[in-house]
Design a protein that fits this description.
8 helices, 12 strands
Length: about 250
């Protein structure tokens, strides 16, 4: 069925020309004949430029949010969903008919749905590399799956260990390793998180939220050790479809 009305959607982030979302939604609108629907990148250097976008963009109905604004955007919103409140990170914004901004998190949903088929009974604990906005959705999903997790950061804190604290025993205890950092994203494809890959085994899952390149150095290193690997593409597709559902309800 052809939809005829002007509606605009977009992605909020910094240096996002590589983005998956624009291609995904543009193709969707063409294929499903949503005439007058467009999707564009709102590439801003500072979050305080965000109100200008809202003020000056007519017919804007919804936004996806990516690095580095998933947490920084929250003070600019009128309301958060219950899950976004718990997660304390937003990657989807709905603009209501009254012009109010409501924040949601669909990252956790996309991650949960893409990880679940890989899980076996011994996958009880996960290491989350990174503590940024993306890591929060991951942590929430793991919680819902009943999987314990520990954050790994460059500096140890109350909530995280640092990379130097990872030893062979860590990898025996934690069978899922998730990269939620941007390390290894194109064009810096040779970079990877600084972990001792030699201790990974075929009992491990290595999951990278990055989807470009499809096989990051992190995943290549894990694959060499026999670990099961997964990139972030399915997660992105699932979270995008969830965002579409939110914008249309």
């Amino acid at each position: 069925m052809t939809q005829n009305s002007k509606k605009r959607f977009g992605l909020l982030g910094r240096n996002i020309s590589y983005s998956f979302s624009k291609g995904h939604f543009t193709t969707k609108f063409e294929k499903e004949k949503y005439q007058g629907y467009t999707y564009e990148n709102f590439d801003i250097q500072e979050i305080n430029m965000f109100p200008e976008i809202i003020k000056n963009t007519e017919h804007l109905k919804g936004l996806n949010v990516t690095i580095p604004y998933k947490e920084e955007v929250i003070p600019f919103l009128d309301k958060l969903s219950k899950k976004a409140t718990k997660i304390a990170a937003v990657n989807t914004i709905k603009i209501t008919k009254k012009g109010k901004l409501k924040g949601y998190n669909t990252d956790y949903f996309g991650f949960l749905k893409s990880l679940k088929p890989l899980l076996k009974t011994h996958h009880k604990k996960a290491l989350i590399l990174g503590t940024g906005g993306a890591s929060k959705g991951v942590a929430f999903a793991l919680q819902e799956l009943g999987i314990e997790y520990t954050f790994v950061s460059r500096k140890a804190s109350e909530n995280a260990i640092d990379y130097s604290q990872i030893n062979p025993e860590t990898f025996q205890e934690y069978q899922i390793i998730i990269n939620s950092t941007p390390i290894g994203t194109s064009p810096n494809t040779e970079a990877c998180p600084d972990i001792p890959y030699e201790w990974l085994t075929e009992q491990h899952i290595a999951y990278d939220l990055i989807y470009n390149p499809a096989e990051t150095q992190f995943l290549k290193n894990a694959k060499e050790r026999g670990a099961q690997i997964k990139n972030g593409l399915d997660m992105l597709i699932f979270q995008a479809e969830k965002a579409w559902e939110i914008w249309n309800k």
